[in-house]
Write a structure and sequence with these properties.
The complex is a heterodimer of chains A (225) and B (349). Chain A is α/β, with parallel strands linked by helices and 225 residues long. Chain A has seven helices and ten strands. Helix content of chain B is 44%, strand content 18%. Chain B contains 13 helices and ten strands. In chain B, strand 2 and strand 3 form a beta hairpin. Classes of the chains: A alpha/beta (225), B alpha/beta (349). Chains A and B meet through helix 1 and helix 2 of A and helix 2, helix 3 and helix 9 of B. The structure holds zinc ion (ZN). Zinc ion (ZN) binds next to helix 4 of chain B. Chain B: Its main location: cytoplasm. Chain B: Its cofactor is Fe(2+).
């Protein structure tokens, strides 16, 4: 079964074409362009090029797997709305994968996965032999650091781990962005068994910035009152 | 209607309305809408991130509703149109990326179009082909523009725009001042019906002799909003009750007076006999009545689509898309960007 894999929860605008077999899976082609401000421009042409290169028609796809974040909202939504409209139009299922889980999948022992949440914060979670030990959260690196000792973390991956390596006191691994093969692995069983399509709910982890208006400001100057 | 006319699906997400419209030629087949307006009400204005989140949730359900309403499938669609700008960047991007996903899946052409030009094009769904040249007055919470339309498929010429607040924004702010809900247009329109528009003289921005040289077709509503606030506050301080209906009527007349005066001036100065009014404020009953009355004196025809087509919707985007397809315009490339400041001189990207 041919599946399209998308992740836009990091600056790496990622698209891949993969095959899910009765046992195992393989990534046939993949593209990732690192540009945190151009998800909307880059993603669709990348998908188009991937399919053309592989000689695959959109109607040949059996499912779409998408990273649901956490990640900067605007880019994250590009991937999720693309996956949602593609699967709607093709009448195929969509499956979501936590982007941090994909980054953590191939780590060994206790590992920190941290991506850049901007505003000097990271999206993070701790993994034990590739499986999540904590849920995804968003915090300042200095607030994450003491937790790492608690969990006896010895390794770190992700762009956020590299950017704040000195704060975490951990050498960052080479992997900065999620690998399509890890995303496929985390959803392959759902593809094989044909579980129903999932709503692709973004892991925002932050509330929208919005302030309720304060009381009316006086329009008359002090001398006029 | 002939089936040879293009079947176009349009997606709008530039502000707080997720719209999907389907048209065949100039015939409206579906106009499905999901609004996040209630989520913004307590903030007194549209919160961009709240709007973007709502668009993501609403897009696919709204697509399904539009297709059901039109009784067509995506396979039947000849082209997809989507608002590329201007508007809120994050909100636009949801519609644009969603439309690209549809275009990829269906292998159909996609047109990224200008939201303001779409506000003009939507009138063709109600009144048929637009006589060109025409003058268009677009007034909403996000825009206040006077345009000259020579050929809607090629671009419109901006004549003037607001230099501060949009007309709809002034309605929202004055409504808030008078304790009315957001959005402010409908409650002010209702209150004004029981008020005396001549009871209070509020300023008409950019209508002085000097302004008419430099800003003949521009608007300014910030001074008016402040004048209303000062008047109401002075009343409150003196301990007298605020005549809400009279304030609403006098404010509304000031806005409509300036808008219609400048729109008619634009028509007359350019020798143009058709005035199209669009945008949410076009649903205001006083604006329509005043425009019709003043236009009639000069033999100008005023075209205002029904209120549901004046506010943001997907049908307007589909209407402009249909126009571009019929004119043989080349579709957009898949890498086009949402442009929050898309200029009026661009009808498509
Ligand atoms: Zn609008």
């Amino acid at each position: 079964m041919l599946v399209l894999v998308l992740d836009t929860a990091t600056p790496a605008v990622t698209a891949a074409l993969a095959e899910v077999r009765p046992s195992g899976h393989a990534v046939l082609a993949q593209r990732a362009t690192v540009d945190g401000r151009a998800h909307g421009e880059l993603l669709a042409p990348q998908i188009d090029a991937l399919l053309a290169e592989a000689g695959v028609k959109p109607r040949d796809l059996a499912a779409v797997i998408a990273g649901v974040g956490p990640g900067p909202f605007t880019g994250l939504r590009v991937g999720l709305v693309t996956a949602a409209s593609l699967t709607m139009a093709l009448n195929i299922p969509a499956y979501g994968v936590c982007t941090l889980d994909a980054l953590g999948l191939r780590t060994a022992g206790r590992a920190l996965v941290a991506t850049d949440a901007r505003r000097r914060e990271v999206y993070w979670a701790v993994y034990a032999d590739g499986r999540p030990l904590t849920g995804p959260a968003v915090d300042k690196p200095a607030d994450v650091a003491p937790r790492l000792a608690e969990y006896a973390v010895t390794a770190a991956v992700g762009e956020g781990a590299a950017k704040y390596a000195d704060v975490f006191g951990l050498p960052a691994g080479e992997q900065l962005y999620p690998e399509p093969s890890a995303l496929v692995e985390l959803a392959a069983q759902r593809v094989r068994t044909g579980v129903p399509s999932e709503p692709l709910t973004p892991l925002y982890l932050r509330r929208p910035d919005a302030v309720e208006p304060s009381a009316r400001k006086p329009a008359l100057s002090a001398s006029e009152r | 209607m002939t089936t040879s006319e293009p079947l176009v699906l349009g997606i709008e997400s530039s502000c707080d309305e997720t719209g999907v419209g389907i048209v065949r030629g100039h015939t409206l087949l579906a106009d499905a809408l999901a609004s996040s307006v209630d989520e913004h009400a307590r903030f007194g204005g549209v919160v961009p991130e709240v709007a973007s989140r709502a668009h993501l949730q609403a897009l696919v359900p709204t697509l399904h509703r539009a297709l059901d309403e039109a009784g067509v499938t995506l396979a039947d669609i000849d082209a997809i149109a989507v608002t590329a700008g201007p508007g809120l960047a994050g909100a636009l991007l949801v519609g644009v990326a969603g439309a690209k996903g549809l275009a990829l899946a269906t292998e159909k052409p996609i047109y990224g179009v200008n939201h303001l030009a779409a506000h003009v094009a939507v009138d063709t769904l109600e009144h048929g082909p637009l006589p060109e040249p025409a003058i268009a007055l677009l007034v909403s919470g996000g825009h206040s523009s006077l345009l000259r339309v020579d050929d809607l498929t090629r671009g419109v010429t901006p004549l003037g725009a607001t230099i501060d607040d949009a007309a709809g924004e002034a309605f929202d702010k004055v409504a808030r001042l008078l304790g009315m809900p957001f959005p402010g247009g409908p409650p002010i329109d209702r209150a004004a019906r029981d008020g005396d528009p001549l009871s209070i003289t509020f300023p008409r921005g950019l209508t002085g002799p000097k302004d008419l040289v430099e800003h003949r077709f521009d608007f300014s509503f910030s001074g008016l909003k402040t004048a209303v606030a000062r008047w109401v506050e002075a009343r409150e301080r003196s301990g007298e009750p605020v005549p809400v209906n009279d304030v609403a009527a006098s404010f509304q007349d000031a806005v409509c007076d300036v808008l219609t005066r400048k729109a008619i001036d634009a028509c007359r100065s350019q020798g143009i006999e058709t005035l199209v009014i669009g945008g949410g404020v076009a649903a205001n009953s006083r604006l329509k009545a005043m425009a019709a009355e003043r236009a009639a004196q000069y033999g100008i025809t005023v075209r205002v689509p029904r209120p549901k087509l004046c506010t943001d919707n997907g049908a307007m985007v589909a209407a402009l898309g249909s126009h571009l397809v019929a004119a043989g315009t080349a579709p957009s490339k898949l890498d086009f960007a949402a442009d929050s400041a898309m200029p009026l001189t661009l009808v498509g990207v």
